Amino acid sequence: MTEDTPLDDAEEDGVPRVAQADSAHAPTSEDLLRALPDTTVVDPPLIFLTAIATVVVLIGLFLNNVAIIVGAMVVSPLLSPINGFTLELAVGRPHRAFAHLRAFVILLFLVVILSAAITTVLFSFGPVVFTPQILSRFERRDVYLVMAVLLGFAAMVAQVKGFHETLVGIGISIALLPPLAVAGIALALFRTNSLSALALAFDNIIGVTIGGFLGVFYFKLGLAGRARRPLVRTFGILLVLLALLYLNLLLTS
């Protein structure tokens, strides 16, 4: 048995299923995965939703309107591939997990590129004003790392307990989508501080993912033993990255 093969009790439609959790009423990782949209492939609907969310958040940023920025998060699909990545690792399927991760990275690039393209068009008609909502996304703080971890954990709690996760998804999207859009704006205008916005988004991505992992460990989701090694190994790598990000914040503040 390879490390990628989970310890299955049965198979359904060719997809391995893990043993049920200790409590008959407690959802397993497989149950949670079935409740998520499949984001292993970047299909047109996923691209369409990401594009809409990007356009709306740009309008909110340029108008300095928080309500519009929050509204963009309602359609943002950035939470699903993060949770898919974590839960697939929990059930011992790293190949599918990294398919979710690959789709997530593609969506991040889409946000940045589309933001840069729209900003370039707007700049051709006149100067682009950096509103307070835009300027605030160039600033990194250690409290944002803590917030991202809490949001990631809250998202997993919402899934396991059956809470409506739209509000959690909005919170996570606020942590991810606007900094990426601001990075695209800065890139289009050849601003050197575009790296600051990208760094803020990266801080939040790592924090949210670590929070999701903590939720998996807390609720004892997924497999045990050797099949759990990819999950633990990836979590260790993320912790190292988080420590390096925090050290970088201390040195640059």
Draw up the topology in text.
Elements: E1 10-12, E2 15-17, H1 29-35, H2 44-63, H3 66-75, H4 79-90, H5 94-125, H6 132-135, H7 142-161, H8 166-188, H9 194-218, H10 229-252
Please describe what this structure looks like.
This protein is mostly helical. It has one domain (10-252): Glycerol uptake facilitator protein. The chain contains ten helices and two strands, in the order E-E-H-H-H-H-H-H-H-H-H-H. It has helices at residues 29-35, 44-63, 66-75, 79-90, 94-125, 132-135, 142-161, 166-188, 194-218, 229-252, and strands at 10-12, 15-17. Strands 1-2 form a two-stranded antiparallel ribbon. A hairpin with a 2-residue loop joins strand 1 and strand 2. The longest helix is centred in the middle third of the chain and has 32 residues, at 94-125. Mean pLDDT is 85; it is low at 1-24.
Query: Tell me, what's the shape?
Result: globular
At the third CATH level, what is the topology name?
Glycerol uptake facilitator protein
Number of domains: 1
Strand content: under 5%
* Count of β-strands: 2
Count of runs of 4 or more consecutive helical residues: 10
CATH class assignment: Mainly Alpha
Tell me what the CATH architecture is.
Up-down Bundle
The main β sheet shows up as: 2 strands, antiparallel
Kindly state the mean pLDDT as a whole number? 85
